[in-house]
Amino acid sequence: MNQAPDGSSATVSAHIVETGIGQVVFSNPSRRHALSAELLGALEARLDELAAQRLPVILLGSGIGQAVWSAGHDLGELAHDRDPLAYGKPLERVLRSVRAYPGVVIAMISGSVWGGAVDLAMSCDLVVADRSARFAMTPANIGLPYTTSGLLRFFHNLPIHVLKEMFFCARPLEAERAAHFGVVNRLVEQDQLQATALEMARGIAAKAPLAVRAVKEQLRILEDLQPLPVQALEQIAELRRQACASEDFSEGLSAFASRRQPLFRGA
């Protein structure tokens, strides 16, 4: 199964590796595997198809031995979308599909991971990475405010000061530190990435699928169980609205397109 939007080099393929194990590979080489809306739509469709087959485990990745696993959002699309992280947008739909998948999703990471692609990796149940992996949250570079739901995924996985460093400084978290903080389950040499992920998948596929599925869903519910007062939610929504509508966001996108440093004014 695969999909390639017209005029695009983006593809998403899915196949059965062996009994109980599937693999999804997304590719957008001309854009450093950026998560365009079309690619995300195809990825959501492939996940839905595999979910209907009730495969206990799927491997998710963009290839091995490359410099970039994914550059995150396709920033060229943001000029027409002031809030790509809103609830109904393509990335958020895919993240929900990964978290709700009725089985275990293992991310296979080779190369650097940027922005929304880090959120995709964090939404997977397990992460296997080689030593070239780096995780950089870069929304502050262009003036894009992150969502509460997105921050919670990091909040549950990282010490608060490391989380702040990632979002405030937008500097990559190297593979060794990511493994130290538990973001990566297995850190291996590049030539062992596929074999290690497949070994984990086989172990999971041999377990009782209904029990694994039940535990995953319970953990998802517990992670989402974050009661917040209405006033706090309204305040957060207003702060995000202001940032998305700001001149700084426009300046960030313009600077990125022109390959120059942005000049933010806080307005």
UniProtKB/TrEMBL annotation:
Keywords: Lyase
InterPro entries reported in the protein's UniProt record: ClpP/crotonase-like_dom_sf, Enoyl-CoA_hyd/isom_CS, Enoyl-CoA_hydra/iso, Enoyl-CoA_hydra_C
SUPFAM superfamilies: ClpP/crotonase
Family: Belongs to the enoyl-CoA hydratase/isomerase family.
Protein's name according to its UniProt entry: Methylmalonyl-CoA decarboxylase
Protein species of origin: Collimonas rhizosphaerae
Source lineage: Bacteria, Pseudomonadati, Pseudomonadota, Betaproteobacteria, Burkholderiales
